[in-house]
Specification:
This protein is of the alpha/beta class. Helices cover 28% and strands 26% of the residues. The strands form 3 sheets. Strands 3, 4, 5, 6, 7, 14 and 15 form a 7-stranded mixed beta sheet that branches. It has a 6-stranded parallel beta sheet with strand order 10-9-8-11-12-13. The structure holds NADP nicotinamide-adenine-dinucleotide phosphate.
Length: 326
């Protein structure tokens, strides 16, 4: 089969398309013929061994992915496709089922086929989604769901989502609404209309206004894009409020520090845990029109380097899809 592979950590040019052996499903696995995947920030960070986050984080990243070279040569975690083969004990799926999901740190979806355990994060596609839409459902939403749960965001609370136009941000706005919170969303000028259409009660253009100066206070501030800080936003939190972080080793230290000191807390809990039930929830939300994956661009597999370069600009709106189907 054709797959996008890399043998060294580095810039997008380390990626290339190669013929590799098609995987064979184990007893409890299905073989999925992939129609669409995404290129996301997890792919970018892993491919460059998190070097932009400093030596310590980069060393940790290599411990997970392979010290000298990547152990898993094929990136990509999100997928949507069809079940074309199954192991002897698989009962949840039949051949021809249209499925979607997320392989997480096992990666392997930038390829024509991948194997997934039936008990892993895989389920049938929402009936109203295309392969490209289904592939873009999980990454931002899993991250956002995890943060909102860790922050105990619920009915009647006020939340500010900073960086509301990225993969995590667009999902965060919709999921915070679903949980019953009142959402103020902060993004750049070109994304104001989109973010409003996702259900934000109020939108703020960060190029024109600093939300920390308008005197409003929130139960939670969700920094969905890692471009803000607890220190800068603290005065906009109500007493007992939480700052939800998606990035940054510093936030991990602040998580532990604020557990003991001060009444405003940073919550940055690792590792995130995503389960099949989260996938089922997202499927239901898509089918009932409560959640829609935002897709910025879609590239054929052959243009994976261009796709990766675009994701690296940190300016994508929502998600970038990779079209794989043979
Ligand atoms: N997605 C993952 O799998 C993953 C995994 C690990 C860590 N993370 C971390 O989580 C964070 C978000 O990831 P993501 O995939 O959601 O990001 P993303 O989709 O790449 O975010 C891009 C968005 O960020 C906005 N943005 C850029 N600069 C900004 C600024 N200064 N202030 C506010 N918004 C700004 C841009 O919108 P505007 O044009 O509206 O500014 C753009 O729409 C990142 O720090 C990433 O490293 C993500």
């Amino acid at each position: 089969m054709k797959a996008v592979v890399y043998d060294h950590y580095g810039p997008p040019d380390v990626l290339r398309i190669e013929e590799v052996a098609r995987p064979t499903p184990k007893d409890d696995e299905v073989l999925v013929k992939i129609h669409a995947a995404t290129v996301n920030r997890l792919d970018v960070h892993t491919r460059e061994a998190n070097r932009k986050s400093g030596l310590f984080v980069s060393a940790l990243s290599r411990l997970v992915s392979g010290v000298r070279a990547p152990r898993q040569r094929i990136l990509g975690s999100e997928f949507a496709g069809e079940v074309v083969e199954k192991g002897a004990t698989v009962t949840d799926f039949k051949l021809g089922d249209r499925v979607f999901g997320n392989t997480g740190l096992r990666f392997g979806t930038h390829a024509e086929f991948t194997c997934v355990r039936q008990s892993a994060r895989i389920t049938s596609m929402p009936t109203n989604a295309s392969f490209e839409q289904a592939a873009a459902i999980t990454d931002g939403a899993f991250n956002a769901l995890w943060c909102l749960r860790v922050g105990n965001v619920n009915q009647g609370q006020t939340i500010l989502v900073y960086g509301a136009s990225g993969a995590i941000g667009t999902a965060g706005v919709q999921l915070a609404r679903y949980l019953g919170a009142r959402v103020t969303a902060v993004c750049g000028t070109k994304n104001l209309e989109l973010v409003k259409s996702l259900g934000a009660d109020r939108v703020i253009d960060y190029t024109k206004e600093d939300f920390t100066k308008d005197g409003k206070r929130y139960d939670a501030i969700f920094d969905a894009v890692g471009k803000n800080t607890f220190e800068h936003t603290k005065s906009s939190l109500k007493p007992g409020g939480v700052y939800l972080a998606t990035d940054g080793f510093r936030n991990l230290l602040l998580h532990f520090w604020t557990q003991r000191f001060g009444d405003k807390k940073v919550r940055f809990q690792l590792p995130p845990v995503y389960a099949q039930r989260d996938l089922l929830l997202l499927k239901e939300l898509v089918e009932t029109g409560k959640f829609k994956p935002v897709i910025d661009r879609s590239y054929p597999m052959e243009q994976v380097i261009d796709a990766a370069r675009y994701v690296e600009t940190e300016q994508k709106t929502g998600n970038v899809v990779l079209r794989i189907s043979a």
